[in-house]
Design goal:
Two copies of one chain form a homodimer. Chain A is an alpha+beta fold and about 150 residues long. Helices cover about 45% and strands about 20% of the residues of chain A. Chain A has a four-stranded mixed sheet. In chain A, a hairpin with a 2-residue loop joins strand 1 and strand 2.
Chain lengths: ~150, ~150
């Protein structure tokens, strides 16, 4: 068994033992070493963003002192949801290894599938454009200020 | 102009003035009142998960003491990226109002499009299954433990 996945599973057990959240653990590896370990803490922290992967990313970034986790890999007990996959991509993580897939996660009651099943009509009712011109002015001011883009 | 979007824009200006991150502000509204305000702090916090929407969700959850933000709406200066949209959906936020769209965000240098443009082949190289059986055992143990599902 992969030793990093084993560490991710151990993290998940730690989390469910204390009822901190779902059975989701993750570790981030750089140059063969685990640089962060985390598990789902949505219930413990009363924070919907505290999935295992997100917590692992935050800890790794804090440890390395940068938002750029290039050269890192993440091992996670479940296929990342769109939020976590987005976080992984923004962090520039090189590769993702997951244990259970989205349907497995769905089978124990977590609502992963709805992200992929939203229809165009449902999405249009959910997400609406508003005051684009005022926001384009903001974007222009930003661009003219020679800010860093990442 | 929508007063909540105006507040989101003001947040964004606060963030770029101090070079905390990109021109992205967000506010969360419940029963007509703004319950949290935030802006992108990826650079300030050296944390890739600190998009404006994510920060606003975390603050609203802290304020209300729950991971469930049903009954809330979010106003954000840019169309949410997959990470933020995922966070919004996990938080059960009712509706999203955004200013600039994904192409606008791309036009000032942020790499939003790549999330949507990843090919099947690229994704297969990026995301790999590993030790599913061991993780299924974890999921079974979780399910048998009568844990809360959210």
């Amino acid at each position: 068994m992969n030793k990093y996945m084993k560490a991710a599973i151990n993290e998940a057990y730690r989390g469910i033992k204390n009822r901190e959240g779902g059975p989701f653990g993750a570790v981030i590896v750089k140059d063969g070493k685990i640089i962060s370990r985390a598990h789902n803490q949505v219930l413990k922290n009363a924070d919907p963003t505290c999935h295992g992967e997100m917590q692992a990313i935050r800890r790794a970034a804090r440890k390395l002192g940068t938002h750029d986790l290039s050269g890192c890999e993440i091992y996670t007990t479940a296929e990342p949801c769109p939020m976590c996959l987005g976080g992984i991509m923004w962090a520039n993580i090189d590769r993702v290894f997951y244990g259970c897939n989205t349907l497995d996660t769905e089978s124990i009651g977590f609502r992963d599938k709805r992200f992929y099943e939203q229809t165009e009509k449902e999405r249009a009712e959910f997400v609406t454009e508003c005051d684009r011109d005022a926001c384009l002015k903001l974007f222009g001011d930003y661009k003219n200020g020679n800010h860093e883009v990442y």
